[in-house]
Amino acid sequence: MADQLKLIAPILKRAQELDAAKPKIAYYCRMHAVREGLKLDYRSAEVNEALSDAMERLERAKAKMKDELNEEHDELECESFALQIFVKADRADRGGSRGMNTAKMFYASSIFFNVLRQFDADGKLDADIENKQRYAEWRAAEITKACREGRNATAPPVDDEGEERSEIGVEAEASSAEPEVELPPAPRHQPPPPPPPPPHVASGPPAGVNTGAPSKATSKTPVVRGGRAPPGVTPPKIDVGSIADAQRHAKNAVSALGFDDVNTAVEALERALNILGPLAAKK
């Protein structure tokens, strides 16, 4: 029955770590853990105790934040936070920092991406987020395994243009909102690779958000160098940090329009275009 608790314990731990710095994200982490726990056909006493405590905390948090909770806006906030942790991990990884701290950041981002499933009726993620979640989970396992074996982890794969991205080279900096993550024990046997993704996984903003950047969708097979990702896991595109920032600004614009805040929407879109303009010029 200990395996049951392992399904929700990491999510609840993230919630506890973020209670003070990011209470809203902690709220949705806890909500995701409760929903996942309630799906179990049989629940051990430990799981029931953990779920009971989580639900009590949710009720108290909901009463405290009742005027602040807005699911549509909160989804964007949770996604933005997950992307920030992912980008920090990816930059550190590609900058040559492949220790346990980087593995922990990848692992945390994979959990935060999974938390986003609660915002979809079918529990699905957008294709780009799904790919990042798989990549983060795989990269965390790769780096953790290398560290525990006392060797250096292989370099991460490159993108579909076969370009190295060592120029990113920015080590992740500590943040007051960044969780301290404890990795689970490495499995004895490598898990089977996930199923292949759709022919093309977009790295740009979601459908319906026009950022002014030309579309460059392609279905060619990625050229993978350095560490080889398993089937179904695609390395993030070049300039992943810039793309994530543009996504965040574009989504903030959509959220602002939902509240008829035109000025904020215009400002957010201008920031997204300022980021994407130089990238489009390189194409």
TrEMBL record:
Per UniProt, the ranges with Polar residues bias are 212-221
Tell me which Gene3D superfamilies the record gives: Immunoglobulin FC, subunit C, Vacuolar protein sorting-associated protein vta1
Coiled coil location: 44-79
| Region span, Disordered | 149-240
Which residue windows does the record flag with biased composition (Pro residues)? Answer: 182-200
Vta1/callose synthase N-terminal domain residues are 8-149
The protein's name is: Vta1/callose synthase N-terminal domain-containing protein
Name the PANTHER family on file. VACUOLAR PROTEIN SORTING-ASSOCIATED PROTEIN VTA1 HOMOLOG (PTHR46009:SF1)
Superkingdom, taxonomy of origin: Eukaryota
Tell me the InterPro entries matching this sequence.
Vta1-like (IPR044538), Vta1/CALS_N (IPR039431), Vta1/CALS_N_sf (IPR023175), Vta1_C (IPR041212)
How does this protein sit in the membrane?
A: Peripheral membrane protein
Q: Its GO biological process terms?
A: late endosome to vacuole transport via multivesicular body sorting pathway; protein transport
Q: What is the lineage of its organism?
A: Eukaryota, Viridiplantae, Chlorophyta, Mamiellophyceae, Mamiellales
Localisation per UniProt entry? Cytoplasm; Endosome membrane
Family according to the record = Belongs to the VTA1 family.
Q: Give residue ranges for domain Vta1 C-terminal.
A: 242-277
Give the source species. Answer: Ostreococcus lucimarinus (strain CCE9901)
GO-annotated cellular components: endosome membrane; multivesicular body
Which Pfam families does the UniProt record give? Answer: Vta1, Vta1_C
Assigned keywords, A-Z: Coiled coil, Cytoplasm, Endosome, Membrane, Protein transport, Transport
